[in-house]
Amino acid sequence: MPVLTEDRRTGAVPPPPTVPPGGRGDDDSSNSGSSFPISKGQVGVWILLTAVIMLFAGLSSAYIVLRGVPAWQRIELPWLLWLNTAILLLSSVAIDISRRAVRRNDLPSMKRWLATGGILGLVFLVGQLAAWRQLVAAGVYLPSTLQSGFFYILTGLHGLHLLGGVVALGLVLGKAIKDRLTSFNYEPLKLCALYWHVMDALWVYLFLLLLLL
Amino acid sequence: MSESHVATHHELGFARKYIFSTDHKVIGVQYLITAMFMAIIGGLLSMLMRYQLAWPQALSPMMQKLFPISYNGGVMAPEFYISLVTMHGTIMVFFLFTAVLTGGFGNFLIPLQIGARDMAFPFLNALSYWVFLLSCIVIFAALFVASGAPMGGWTAYAPLSAIPNAAPGQATGMTLWITAIALFSASGLMGALNYITTILTMRTKGLSMMRLPLTQWSLLITSILGLLAFPVLLGAGILLMFDRMGGTSFFVPAGIIMGQMPLDHSGGHPLLWQHLFWFFGHPEVYIVVLPAMGMASDILSTFCRKPIFSYRMMVYSMVAIAVLSFVVWGHHMFVSGMNPFLGSVFTLTTLLIAVPSAVKTFNWLGTVWGARIRFTPAALFAIGFVSMFVSGGLSGIFLGTSAADIQLQDTYFVVAHFHLVMAIAPLFAAFGGLYFWFPKMFGRFMNNTLGKIHFWFTFIGAYCVFFPMHVIGVGGQMRRIYDPTQYMFLQSQQVVNVFITISAFVLGAAQLVFLLNFFVSIFAGKRATERNPWHANTLEWTAPSPPGHGNFPPELPTVYRWPFDFSVPGEREDFVPQTVPTTVTARH
Prior knowledge:
The structure holds two protein chains of two kinds. Chain A contains six helices and no strands. By secondary structure, chain A is mainly alpha-helical. By secondary structure, chain B is an all-alpha fold. Chain B has three domains: 77-252; 314-526, Cytochrome c oxidase-like, subunit I domain (Cytochrome C Oxidase, Chain A, Up-down Bundle); 537-588, no CATH class. Chain B is built from 17 helices and two strands. In chain B, helix 3 (24-54) packs antiparallel against helix 17, helix 6 (122-141) runs antiparallel to helix 7 and helix 12 (377-400) runs parallel beside helix 15. Chains A and B meet through helix 1, helix 2 and helix 5 of A and helix 7, helix 8 and helix 9 of B.
């Protein structure tokens, strides 16, 4: 039996419409014809964030279960965490100012605030290490109690994820310095800001979990 | 862009084209071949187990030469048997089924069936394969460490898995196991990220979600399951690693005494590991079964020359199964000491899964009903999938009921159940998929006669192996038992064990027919001259066999209809590909 695909295609099929130019992120060349309203970069980052949130959901469910065992002992959280939290919140504000600046096409301001946000992120990470040192100085180590184990693991994992955010921010900053971000095409900055804000919110959640439960 | 893309595309060297490729088709085949290698290892381990179960005290001087420590004195050591159980389960669940169905078929089929040139993130895709390969090497290495392979079972229950000197294999072997599973999770997450993004954002013009082939729906839902389940396993693995190496006590209860020395652990919760593991573990079952369902549905419809019966219900039932799979994990823990009231809740949710599963089964029967089936090897394996899924699924109703499970748990009844439903059934779908898409992958056909021989020996062999296991399970034979003859009450059914073992050897030998057929056909099979040899409707059949770089030269296809227009009244042919405009056939 002959295959009819080919001869039916000739003539009967109108030529596919041309791809609308631009407007869907920076790496969209092969994405022709799709009517999906969200760019693949954005979908990708949301999926990544879902995975990160599930990781911490799993760990915090373990935390909540283990709170009920008799051996659970609370530890005194280092005071430095409050300062770190404020720094991380400020970094989120800086990155959001940068995102607003690029929308106005105010590129120098965008670069300045982006760099500020990244530096504040690094300060937060150094602050977290200092908080670990505070705990060690107080004689609280990883195996000391169940909660201290969770403290080191949760802050460590969050720090690693934020470090990933700092690296991404550095790459975006590199693009910005080479003037490859404009008010028409700033998706990398948008995605980076999204990731950063979620990491920020995740830290606030983890801090409250460790503080209150 | 497509025209220039093809024109400027220059020939890559062998290494870039076939080894360090970012082309989804090459990565898919890499996954397939790697998983096949792992399947051979996992299968050989099961043969050793079966030999031991049939003739527990028999001397095997040959094995003693090969494994002087594990076969000290010519008889398999009990520790080695437990290591075999662990490694067989781990390799088959993760490194064969998850890898071959989502990694192999997912990579190969997603861009082709949705009319895209490649995955959304090709580099990430290649990275996913290489991390997977690394995880294969790590788990393979666990077989060869001096202290022995891991012995915790594929579920790695704590505290056995949390204490390195609890058993010989729990030292380095278990560390390698956790490392391999962590790497595998990372690779699976990269894959899931790619699959979801690609299916959502890169469908070609006209391909709405409700025009997707069921294979694509199943891969999308599977990827979402993986995305939600694997991070939890990863988190649990991190806690377990700290218990083993950092001195924490998340999963180790207080007061454990080893070698008359109390352990320095303060009161964790061993059940917590089971909860975290099975929160991942049960969705994992559907990560394996759902792509099998999707592929079997598309293959059945093609060879029955009929539309799939009730496409929408097929999609909705897969979604229902996926949602329910996250609220049933407790049925693995009925006798663990968990609150019995929770057992009733998990019984209810578990039995609810029977509803969408039955919907799917009736739809497959409705598809086959009254059809003039073309019995190619692919069609036979798709029918075999339905048979195995029903056989294995029915025993799930017994096991999902907590009252019955108290009697049946940890017997061969469970072994029979999960092998049929989540090992043999997906295996059949994978074989069906290989016979079906082989011409598209390699531009050649697999041998039909050898394929049918392979099917009948596998079909009958699988039933001969796994059906009697129900009987000896009800008779009391324990799961993971090393020597069934050590108990008087099991001796009378030892003849069944011998029968199962002989059947397993036949089943294993039948797979050699497949391997021969597969690898010879890649180079010497009959050439697939037509693009669409099975007269199927989906987009991959409009691409050349094998498709070149970029899949669809020169233009991406446009979709006008769903993929199941078979035997449409008034049509000249009994199939209408998705690319045929509806205006030409106004009667639709």
